[in-house]
UniProtKB/TrEMBL annotation:
UniProt xrefs under Gene3D superfamilies: Winged helix-like DNA-binding domain superfamily/Winged helix DNA-binding domain
Origin: domain of life: Eukaryota
Originating organism: Penicillium desertorum
InterPro entries per UniProt: Homeodomain-like_sf, WH-like_DNA-bd_sf
Name this polypeptide is given: Transposable element tc3 transposase
Length: 98
């Protein structure tokens, strides 16, 4: 697989199933799925307990300053008046951003 791509939930489940139920080791699983790196297989098996239903946990990151409703307000104001000033746009979202 290309670097930094996430495994599909089905492939993740199959890897964990081969490890736990069939008793396969990391290298044997890697021979079966050579497009998944050995370290990726180890990481997938190690993190299996943290996943609920095979779904990845959400990524961490800085919270968004504007929610979806505020973004829609801004886009609506711009569509309504393309020559709107920056101050008027900031007033639309109660000066949440600068």
């Amino acid at each position: 697989m290309a670097p930094r791509t996430e495994l599909t939930p089905a492939l993740r489940e199959r890897i964990c199933e081969l490890h736990s139920a069939a008793g396969w080791g990391y290298k044997r699983i890697h021979k079966r799925y050579p497009f998944v790196s050995l370290s990726g297989i180890r990481y997938t098996i190690k993190r299996d307990r943290e996943r609920i239903g095979g779904v990845s946990k959400p990524r961490t990151g800085r919270p968004k300053k504007l929610d979806q409703a505020d973004r829609e307000k801004l886009l609506g104001a711009i569509a309504e008046n393309p020559k709107i000033t920056r101050e008027d746009l900031l007033a639309e979202v109660s000066h949440k951003v600068s």
